[in-house]
Specification:
single chain; alpha+beta; Glycoprotein, Type 4 Pilin; 4-stranded antiparallel sheet; two-stranded antiparallel sheet; 6 strands; elongated
């Protein structure tokens, strides 16, 4: 428009054209309503396409990270047993990182650390709890449960049915590790009647 302002005294047709353009710029201070509606519609369509795929990618990443953590902790627990011929006591995550039996003593033949760190939280929230108890019938014989070591994605150290994992994610983890999504059998257990579950994954049983 600087060029237009310099045309004073030049050809009248060109000057009139420039003056028209200047007026058009002055009048056009924003988007028209139709333009705004079109932009909003385009954004809505893009959001409808992108958002579900983004959520699916996040959920898949959470599942992959959970299974990787489980396999690392399972490998570490088996290594402790190989070296020391004992399993860490219930809730004794310290034994994976230091020569500590969680009872004021040490573990004979401990040769760790077996993990660099214990994961502070799961990708679904809550905690990873190492358990060594007989609260789950892992051998599915409907008889007396035997002692077993397992990793729980839980809201607290004590076992409970409810937890931080969406049941749909639990089913997909179950399918990946067991080959079937059955909450009551195999090495993955949870209560599939709940929306958010505690997920228990077997390390070893007696």
């Amino acid at each position: 428009m600087v060029f237009c302002r310099s045309l004073v005294g030049e050809e009248s047709i060109l000057l009139a054209w420039c003056q028209g353009k200047i007026e058009e710029v002055r009048m056009r201070k924003g988007f028209t309503l139709i333009e705004l509606i079109v932009v909003i519609a385009i954004i809505a369509v893009l959001a409808a396409i992108i958002a579900p795929n983004a959520f699916k990618a996040i959920e898949k990443a959470n599942r992959s990270a959970t299974m990787a953590d489980y396999k690392s902790i399972k490998t570490a627990a088996l290594a402790i047993y190989t070296d020391a011929a004992i399993w860490p006591d219930d809730g004794c995550e310290e034994a994976f990182l230091a020569d500590d039996d969680c009872a004021g003593g040490t573990i004979t033949m401990w040769d760790g650390p077996y993990l660099e760190t214990w994961p502070s939280t799961t990708r679904f929230g809550g905690i990873y709890a190492y358990r060594n108890d007989a609260l789950i019938d892992w051998d599915d014989d409907a008889g007396t449960a035997v002692n077993a070591r397992y990793l729980a994605l839980a809201t607290a150290q004590a076992r409970a049915a409810a937890g931080p994992v969406p049941v749909a994610s639990a089913e997909k983890i179950d399918l990946a590790l067991d080959g079937t999504a059955d909450a009551a059998v195999g090495q993955v257990r949870y209560d599939d009647s709940l929306a958010l579950v505690e997920l228990d994954m077997l390390i070893s049983s007696d």
